[in-house]
Amino acid sequence: MPHTADSRSETEKRDLRTGQPLWLSDGPPKLAVRQTPRHTRYDVIIAGSGISGALTAWHLCDGKRRVLLIDRRPPLTGSTPASTAMIQYEIDTPLTKLSEMIGKEQAVRAWKRSAKAVQRLGEIVRLENIPCGYTEKPALYLAGDEFGFRALQKELEARKAAGLTSRFIPAQELRDTYGMDRTGALLSEPSASADPAQLTAGLLRRAMDSGLEIVSPMEVGDFVATGAQAAVTLSNGQILTCGHAVFCTGYEFLKSLESREHRIISTWAISARSRSKLPDWLDNHIVWEGSDPYLYFRTHTDGHVVIGGEDEPFETGHMNAAKLERKVATLVKKFEALTGVALYPPSHRWAAAFGESTTGLPFLGPVPGHTNIHALMGFGGNGITFSVIGAEIVAAAISGNPDPDASIFAFPGDADAP
Questions:
Q1: What is the mean pLDDT of each run of 10 residues along the chain (418 residues)?
Q2: Which of 132, 168, 184, 289 is the most exposed place for a label (fewest CB within 10 A)?
């Protein structure tokens, strides 16, 4: 059935971030873009040049397909640079809780696929030699006011039964090794950190080497999907046809997919340098906690400590300049109290829209009712990891080889998901 927009754009428009992310200190990475498409027919049209769009393009650009990527903004100026790029397999919803929500088998498959995605991203970065500071390091999950000692031990047993790599760190070891006073923690692999802007730019450049065409600024005004093709109307009035359209527009999602299953909230982040030498362990770990609101942090290869959290359930909260200053002060105070590491005033501070789903899982794959229209809504703290999974699911569907895990991440109400 045709889908008709009720305004000039198929996707929501949001102010995705405020402030200045560390990753854009020298401006967004430069990419060669066009103002208008070269052709009127493409095999695949991708909307969105963030990490999801870049990974999708990388998977699909094989030198044979004609692939077009469009974005209403210049590339790498949306929500991707607002990421703190703590790349981990641990889903926001613990395995024990997710098992209660969707069943143990499905929950284990989701967690194991997430672990596989982190490993796969590392392989891609090494294969393509992308200079993005990608560094593998374990994740330390601290007991907090929402997920304490007993919950951690229960979670550990669930992960071990699923074949996932985690180890319990008791309170004394946590104090002796990490200098932090909590009742315990889980140490898990695989996880990593990176510069999300350079990671995304590197993927786009490799895809362009294989024929990707990028047009910006441009957006989809409407689409009609019938049979084996789709017609896409651009904001300049031009009509293109394609075999598949993929919406990788992040929190500016398709209006037709607005759902009670997800919500947009606000999150805050900073980067700062330490007043003294950082402890060796901090350079080799990413850290987060089982609290609400929660704190998370890691270092970058340039010596900055990157800290985030203080999420609030308000989709426009990140636009409040006074609130940004208060959140910055809170993040600094919490980090210093927890680690004993004193910071200089933050060099970068930013806030952004952030998506959550009721299960903590993303929505990835065909849009209900449209087998050749796909969307990647990688909600949750695992945005980059979920983007890897989404790109794999969409690439498999377009190639005619459905992904065995597609149903786990299917959109609510998508009865046709394999």
A1: 40 55 90 94 95 96 95 85 92 95 97 97 98 96 95 97 95 97 96 96 97 93 83 92 89 56 78 94 95 93 92 65 87 96 95 81 88 81 90 95 94 57
A2: 168
**Cis? peptide before 345, omega within 30° of 0:** no
May I ask the CATH architecture of the domain 136-190+262-357?
2-Layer Sandwich (3.30)
C-alpha distances (whole Å) from 181 to each of 159, 305, 390 are 24, 20, 38
Half-sphere exposure of 217 (CA within 13 A, CB side): 5
Q: Look at the chain and count its residues.
A: 418
Q: Are 110 and 361 in contact (CB under 8 A)?
A: yes
The pTM (predicted TM-score) of the whole model is 0.91
Q: Give the C-alpha distances (Å, rounded to integers) separating 416 from 29, 176, 382.
A: 39, 53, 26
Q: Domain locations in the chain?
A: 17-82+197-260+360-409, 136-190+262-357
Which tokens hold the place of 271?
């980067």
